[in-house]
């Protein structure tokens, strides 16, 4: 399916909603234009980038400044009609060229610092997520060529104040905002419209003859399926937080085999019978872990540590230390039981499998051997 132009609106209830772009796109564009200004030694007022989703953005540059082998530039965040805490703020990049051959990326004022596990980034690092890191480095490398090096410093003077309106502190990201965005584009959409767009993808795949589908919360799941299961991404559909809805849609459309693949942070909730996994609906991750670990004979010391964790990633560290990694396969079986219980009135329910993986793309557990699941998906 071809990518819609950036300026094509999203329609909802007869109203045209304007798209925006992420903090990751802002940081990428700011870094690219700062690198260009150093090389050309003149101010540039507009810059274009290609986002990870393939959309080309042409963005206005603010506060450009050049000083020798260093330049600074800013891009103003625009969330379109999906306004959030970062809408309208300036994201800056300072690029300093050197002869090292390496690009070193860092975060400064207003960019949060990761203070505990769970964000998918090392503790102590700047809260610049994986995709923006890749796009920033790629954009700068494109400008400076293969031989030069550069220090790229991302900062956002309003970031610390703006972060007070986000969930960053709860995630252990302190002192500022996160530089995020897996597609580079912000698409405003109501929940109903969002669900319908996900279901439409299921319909298209079923119409093409697909009988088996892998449902994942987001892009990390698709990458795991492609890289670790060696299965074509065409079999993967994003379910976001709408687990129950997407399972029911898959059943309605006649899929014979459903595989739920994701990080424990999302999938654990399904083991508790929570089929809408957004935190504003329900969040019993630690309680679910504690209950099932107790059933598996875990010591009280481990249960106490898990109950105090804020993120599943932090809890997983304790689980490994106590040697209870088998809990993930136990939970995967429980997830499948919950799905079949939800579908108990379905005449011919599909085969259900579940696989949990870690942030570094390794299998944590599954309801049956992963090789068998992958083999079934290839049939």
TrEMBL record:
Pathway: Cofactor biosynthesis; adenosylcobalamin biosynthesis; cob(II)yrinate a,c-diamide from sirohydrochlorin (anaerobic route): step 6/10
Keyword terms: Cobalamin biosynthesis, Methyltransferase, S-adenosyl-L-methionine, Transferase
Record flagged with keyword DNA-binding: no
UniProt xrefs under Pfam families: CbiD
InterPro entries: CbiD, CbiD_sf
Catalytic reaction list: Co-precorrin-5B + S-adenosyl-L-methionine = Co-precorrin-6A + S-adenosyl-L-homocysteine
Gene3D superfamilies with a match to the protein in the record: CbiD-like
Family named by the database record: Belongs to the CbiD family.
Record NCBIfam families: cbiD (TIGR00312)
The protein's name: Cobalt-precorrin-5B C(1)-methyltransferase
Organism: Yokenella regensburgei
């Amino acid at each position: 399916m071809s990518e819609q132009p950036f300026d094509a609106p999203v329609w909802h209830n007869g109203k045209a909603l304007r798209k925006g772009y992420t903090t990751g796109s802002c940081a990428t564009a700011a870094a690219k234009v700062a690198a260009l200004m150093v090389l050309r030694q003149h101010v540039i007022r507009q810059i274009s980038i290609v986002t990870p989703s393939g959309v080309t953005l042409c963005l206005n540059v603010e506060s450009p400044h050049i000083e020798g082998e260093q330049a600074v530039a800013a891009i103003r965040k625009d969330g379109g009609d999906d306004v959030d805490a970062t809408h309208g703020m300036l994201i800056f990049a300072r690029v300093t060229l050197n002869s090292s051959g390496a690009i070193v990326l860092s975060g400064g004022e207003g960019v949060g610092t990761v203070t505990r596990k769970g964000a998918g980034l090392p503790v102590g690092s700047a809260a610049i997520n994986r995709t923006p890191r890749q796009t920033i480095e790629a954009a700068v490398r494109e400008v400076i060529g293969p031989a030069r090096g550069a220090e790229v410093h991302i900062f956002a003077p309003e970031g610390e104040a703006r972060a007070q309106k986000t969930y960053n502190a709860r995630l252990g990201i302190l002192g500022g905002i996160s530089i995020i965005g897996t597609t580079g584009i912000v698409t405003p959409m109501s929940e109903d419209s969002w669900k319908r767009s996900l279901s439409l993808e299921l319909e298209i795949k079923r119409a093409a003859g697909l009988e088996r589908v892998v449902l994942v919360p987001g892009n990390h799941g698709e990458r795991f399926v492609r890289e670790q299961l060696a299965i074509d991404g065409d079999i993967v559909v994003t379910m976001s937080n709408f687990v129950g809805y997407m399972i029911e849609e898959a059943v309605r459309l006649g899929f014979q085999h459903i595989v739920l693949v994701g990080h424990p942070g999302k999938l654990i909730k399904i083991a508790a019978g929570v089929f809408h996994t957004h935190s504003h609906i329900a969040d019993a991750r630690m309680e679910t872990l504690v209950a099932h670990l107790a059933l598996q004979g875990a010591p009280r010391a481990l249960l106490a540590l898990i109950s105090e964790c804020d993120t599943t990633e932090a809890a997983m560290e304790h689980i490994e230390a106590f040697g209870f990694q088998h809990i993930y396969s136990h939970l995967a079986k429980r997830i499948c039981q919950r799905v079949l219980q939800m579908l108990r009135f379905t005449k011919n329910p599909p085969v259900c499998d579940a696989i949990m993986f870690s942030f570094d793309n390794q299998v944590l557990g599954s309801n049956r051997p992963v090789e068998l699941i992958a083999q079934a998906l290839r049939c």
